[in-house]
Write a structure and sequence with these properties.
Layout (H helix, E strand, L loop, with lengths): L2 H5 L18 E5 L5 H10 L4 E6 L2 H13 L6 E5 L12 E7 L8 H11 E14 L5 H9 L11 H11 L2 E10 L2 H8 L12 H5 L5 E9 L5
Parallel strand pairs: 1-2, 1-4, 2-3, 4-5
Antiparallel strand pairs: 5-7, 6-7
Bound molecules: S-adenosylmethionine.
């Protein structure tokens, strides 16, 4: 794995590990960052497959270009600067949509899942790692997390609301691959992701209010084929 992709990896799982990517498939990575999962995905998709990475940070897209070039994969990876809530990709382009610790950051999760559904071929699938809350947190606490940045905590929503969005979008066969309740240290690290120099830690009192309530969730779901 190119060092730049490793150094800038900010995921909370490894969606390629459970996406079941087959040779020849087209994989879209929502919020690809520096490209760690794109490299893994396109290696699985083989010489007939390809991967498309989207990230709204042009600096991350530059780093992803560097990582795929270093692996000699540039001809099989497309990269775009863009908002995953408003993709400039055609309908039904992807066999698989993956995303690693990104949807929790997006204020409009509905729009993100509608876009994922639109770009998937019928019968296509999602493989997502994300951060959720085991229960809703007080609006004032959410506001404090959001105004402090608070990494991946400020935008995370309660799991029942998350699953409702996924199923109301039209996805079926939603399967939780793994759910890990974060330890206090992991919650602290997550709250300052991508690092304390970018995102100062919330107060210990605020952090204690979410300890034991933050989960890293990995799941798959399918876009049904017409019958
Ligand atoms: C926690 S990092 C994860 C990056 C990468 N998936 C990984 O595993 O290393 C979140 C990434 O999502 C991107 N991002 C957040 N919101 C986005 C949005 N609405 N549209 C596109 N990219 C977004 C950020 O620029 C950042 O690169």
């Amino acid at each position: 794995m190119p060092q730049i992709a490793l150094d800038l990896s900010r995921g909370c799982g490894a969606p390629v590990g459970f996406a079941g990517i087959q040779s020849g498939e087209v994989v879209v990575d929502l919020g690809c960052g520096a490209g760690i999962d794109l490299v893994l995905a396109v290696e699985r998709a083989g010489s007939d497959g390809r991967a498309i990475g989207i990230d709204f940070s042009s600096r991350m897209i530059e780093r992803a270009h560097q990582a795929v070039a270093e692996k000699g994969l540039a001809d099989r990876v497309e990269l775009h600067v863009g908002d995953i809530a408003k993709l400039e990709l055609p309908d039904s382009i992807a066999d698989v949509v993956i995303s690693n610790c990104v949807v929790n950051l997006c204020p409009d999760k509905d729009a993100v899942y509608h876009e994922a559904y639109r770009i998937l071929k019928p019968g296509g699938r999602l493989a997502i790692s994300d951060i959720t809350l085991m229960e809703e947190i007080a609006p004032e606490l959410r506001e404090r997390f959001q105004s402090a940045g608070a990494g991946c905590l400020g935008g995370a929503i309660a799991e029942p609301d998350y699953w409702r969005i996924v199923s109301e979008t039209g996805f079926r066969d939603v399967q939780t691959v793994n759910r890990h309740l974060l330890s206090d240290d992991e919650v602290r690290a997550l709250a300052s992701c991508p690092g304390e120099e970018f995102c100062p830690p919330p107060s210990p009192a605020d952090l204690s209010l979410v300890e034991g309530k933050v989960a890293s969730v990995k799941f798959t779901a399918a876009k049904p084929s017409p019958t």
